[in-house]
Amino acid sequence: MTAVRSNTMGTCQTIRSLRAVSICLLVLGAAGCTDFSNDELVYDNPAPSDELYIPADEGDFFLAVAVSGGGSRSAVWSAAVLEELYRQVKLPDGRSITDEIDYISSVSGGSISSAYWCLNKPEVDTTHASEYDTFFERFSADMCTNIQGEMISRPREWSRLLLTDEQKGLVLMRELDDRFYSGRTFYDLYMREKARISPTLIINGTEMDSGAKFLFTTLPRSEFTNRSLLSIVSGTTSGIMKSNIIYDPDVLRVRFCRDAGLSIGRMRVSRAVVASAGVPLLFGPVVLKDEFRSTPEREAYIHVNDGGISDTLGLETLIQLFMDRYNRPKKKRFVRGLILIIDANQHLDPEDSIFSIEGFGPAALIERSREIISYRGKNLTYLTIMFLQQDPRFKDIRFVYISPYMVDDPEIIARIKKTPTRLKIKPENAENLRAAATIVVGGIKDRILANFEGKDVNGGQPAFGGVQ
Asked: What's the rounded Cα separation, in Å, for the pair 9 and 18?
């Protein structure tokens, strides 16, 4: 009888504890839910009639950078690569090749560093070494910030764990503004781009409603064809489309804020970064009001999230931008082009599971699925480039690939493989990526300069021979 009474008392205590926890969670949830209003959650600033857009580059050379996703791993890697390009790849006049970058197209975690670069880099060229040395020291340190930890490290932030995914995206937006962007808008970015202080930034997201690619940029919509990269290839001499295969054009189209009647200039850059870097079930999507489809009776919304879903490298966007000059004959065409691909995506390692009976746990299985989708998408983009090589019109656009996996050191590679895709990074992993950037850029700097100057780099063969 005593044992029964003891068990009963234990059960009652457990129930009371669960009730107390439930009440605390409800209170915290209520506190969290009142932290944001729908007005703050939904972006609904309509586009003014005099919305400002940056004009397309009128030069005859196209120099662009594609920055992949990969959480803080990508943010640290791309910051380190940009620093090494500044230090090691010098032009004859003493400036760095980074002074010549026209466009940066970024995805996911790469959007955090790309926006930082465009908003914060010094307003002078790279011959002002002291200013750039100070900037890169701060840039490197900031990209190592444990954003995830900061968001939940304070007791008053615990309620945020119970927020909706859209509300957590807004929390991330606030963190990014507090630390990196200071609430600046695309109009602020436009002024820097117009003055040629920074390259033109293109932040890639995915419209979750239709599957279309969604671009946040001060470039006008007219600079992009409303066609996918696949449809562009069909106009080449590759013969890839000599078939009756039908594909869905809506999924492969490109969408912009103006397509929803919204102002890009009034939007905070941090909102676009969150849209690009958001991960389903963790942060985001970012919610935009569709002014064109909304009615007095019913408002319509667009939900934008992880840019890596539609373009894992941001590379497809740059090719669309470049090839638009060829599809519209009245436009001035680029004579030559160079695209630097800063890729921090994980490589797939079969040994992750083949020595385990269980294979992958539930969380690891979801992450593995995401990695496979990303990896296949990246390689399909590279295959598309191979098809473009068959068209003589594009023989003078070159690609230089920059990845930490190019290091010829098994120990460094092993440590890189263990760097997860999160918004935090261990100091030793960050240092490993920075060391890899020094080695990789040092090994390809001559190739970059040769391609930039239009010289052959393959023993007299055209330098376009694939991803170089």
From this structure: 14
